[in-house]
Amino acid sequence: MTASSDRILPGVALMIAFCVLAPLLDVCAKLASATIPVGQITGARFLVQAVLMLPVVALMRTGWRMSRRMAGFVLLRAVFLILSTYSFVAAVTVMPIADALAIAFVEPFILLMLGHVLFGDEVGPRRIAASIVGFGGALLVIQPSLAAFGPVAFWPLGTAVFFAFYMLVTRQMSRAMHPVTMQLHTALAGVLVMVPVLALGELAAIPSLDPVRPEGHAWAFLVGVGFWASASHICMTYALKFAPSATLAPLHYLEIVAAVTLGYLVFGDFPNPLTWAGIGVISASGLYIIHRERIAARVLPTPAPAP
Hints:
With 307 residues, the chain is mainly alpha-helical.
């Protein structure tokens, strides 16, 4: 076995672990939403994540300092992650986790288009066509969800849009900050943003932002949201350290399998045929885009002739 495969195998294993652990965050959020407002669940994610990441960063000695420019990026990254998390939690309060996740999986298509508009990334007609097909798949999931749950079915689209912006900010920061330190600073910034937001929510008596005192198992669910967020993203961070993103990206669609399984075991939810069709279309379109990205990455620019 080559040294390269020795590194890729742990990367693949960690990515699969991410796909299994990430839906546990969604399960805890859905369970907590029975008695806890969406905003409070969102804030709990960042608070618990910050508490858990502090000793990790201290032990790894990855450094704490950052420039003012990086601090601005961290704050922006936290705001986009707050909006993405809030949108998804708002969705799963009433929707099955698998349905919401399937709609949110249009994020790679949005990211592709934003990369083209903001950074001039080359996007060929095949990838544009795959994105359009992927959005069509999302509509297959949204249509029955809209009939069953109302406008809340559009919340996962908000998750996709905000997470795409979150990924673009992360792209700008990745070369200047260690990913584990980035997670800690993002969590701390998230807490700093959410505390005044929840305080204003309480003063204005906004139901989704007015915090309540958790009781019983709600404490465990809130801790679980932050714990599984931290554990899953640590797995993804180190997966990308061991294996290239082109190898790991197709595995991300296993998250839908885990979400369907957990949704059925915990809540008795199982996607209907139209939703399965949408999941299939979105997954196939996403995998095709990954395939085209790999082909594009292999094409090296023709060297300029020697003067």
